[in-house]
Specification:
five-stranded mixed sheet; 16 helices; 13 strands
Length: about 425
């Protein structure tokens, strides 16, 4: 039993601070660990040596500022985490290790009219297949992150009634997948996970305050305040799609009129082009045509950008983020949509807030949410398991990362977080 305030208690606390910093960031130099934790360079050096000796971290040569340095990351074979992303028309699963490397990843189309149980069946099968691909045993799964396109009650884990997936409202995805797979499940909406994915791996790296805007079948925002996802007491923060732009406008699925979503989401804007481009036009195809010079598609993309910019201006006035990351298919339009967003922000936001804002496209594309699901598990898992050796002690003979078969499916990706 450690006595609070004792030397052993202080040492344990310092171990946890170092492990936590590395776990969240993916990899850090020892100098970066010292700055992040506030510990002295000598203390960090001693702790890293101890963690390396017991197999908790790996140390590799690197450079920082032109000088030789040592990069510290959690051991790649200490365990794995799983990310699952349910979209309006897709299911995507990824498996990664604690060193922030993606070992296997796969997506498949999903019938939006399918029942929730059918969706869970397919997710279960895909998760089990990808775990097998990595070569790790099932008991090495530390946790699973799950993304769904709708508001989640943060206390109960129940999916709200405004979800885009028909027939899923009132279900508890966290309990369902946890009982099927026998692992702890962390669940959040897709916009929050997109924000977390871009924060850790993509265009949000280095930012402490940002908004991730996803425009697809619906419109949502993932909010990061002081480096943390902000969900609100009921889990509905970031429902930017239901800001009212025109109280006499089209009726939204939420029951109100003229919501931002009714001017920007695919189900509302694509019909504007049906007479000229046919009823089978999709958002990715519209963006591709716009980039190729199609005038009609360019006009619709620009209009969507201006409307999104109005919503972003509201966020600027309320939260004053330093960065807005545009995700979803619309981000592929580049300056065709980013320019109109910036124009609206300049027009409607407080000038000082507008000047401080950077609007950028997401770097991860359709992978943002599933990588955010991995990051969610990495951020929520405790450090005691690693330090107590319950994982490392049982890994004798375990494979070091993914076998050759996994490499052909998706290359391992290692990246440092900005969190």
């Amino acid at each position: 039993m450690e006595t609070p305030g004792s030397q052993s208690s202080l040492h344990r606390a310092n171990l946890e601070r170092v492990v936590r910093a590395v776990r969240i960031a993916g990899s850090l130099t020892q100098a970066e660990i010292a700055r992040t934790t506030g510990l002295s360079a000598a203390t960090v050096s001693n702790i890293v040596r101890e963690l390396k000796d017991n197999g908790t971290v790996e140390v590799t040569p690197t450079s920082a500022g032109g000088r030789r340095a040592r990069s510290v990351s959690l051991s790649g074979d200490a365990g794995i985490v799983v990310g699952v992303d349910f979209g309006h028309s897709h299911l995507r699963v990824a498996v990664g290790n604690l060193a922030h490397q993606v070992l296997a990843e796969e997506s498949e189309p999903i019938d939006v009219d399918a029942s929730a149980s059918q969706g869970f069946d397919r997710a279960e099968r895909l998760v089990e297949r990808l775990i097998e691909v990595t070569g790790f045993r099932r008991e090495k799964v530390i946790g699973l992150g799950l993304g769904v396109p709708g508001p989640i009650d943060v206390e109960t884990g129940v999916l709200g009634s405004s979800t885009i997936l028909p027939g899923w409202a009132g279900t508890n995805p966290r309990e369902e997948l946890s009982s099927r797979l026998g692992v702890e499940v962390h669940v959040d909406n897709d916009a929050n996970l997109g924000a977390l994915g871009e924060l850790v791996w993509g265009s949000g790296r280095g930012a402490r305050d940002l908004a991730y805007i996803k425009v697809a079948s619906g419109v949502g925002a993932g909010l990061v305040i002081d480096g943390q996802i902000y969900r609100g007491p009921g889990g509905t923060a970031g429902e930017i799609g239901h800001i009212t732009l025109d109280e006499s406008g089209p009726v939204c699925r939420c029951g109100n009129r003229g919501c931002l979503e009714t001017f920007t989401a695919a189900r509302y804007v694509l019909p504007l082009l049906h007479s000229s481009h046919g009823p089978d036009l999709t958002m990715p195809e519209m963006v591709r045509l716009a980039r190729s010079g199609d005038l009609g598609c360019r006009r619709v993309v620009a209009d969507v950008g201006r409307h999104v910019g109005s919503g972003v201006a509201n966020l600027c006035n309320l939260l004053n983020p330093s960065r807005v990351v545009l995700g979803g298919d619309l981000a592929e339009a580049g300056e065709l949509v980013l320019g109109p967003i910036r124009d609206s922000v300049s027009r409607y936001a407080i000038p000082s807030a507008a000047r401080q804002l950077t609007v950028v496209p997401g770097a991860l594309g359709g992978r943002a949410e599933v990588l955010g699901a991995l990051a969610l598990v990495l951020s929520e898992m405790g450090d005691s398991t690693l330090l107590d050796g319950s994982l490392n002690g049982s890994l004798n003979g375990a494979p070091n990362g993914a076998p050759n078969g996994a490499a052909g499916r998706v290359p391992a990706v290692a990246a440092s977080a900005g969190a």
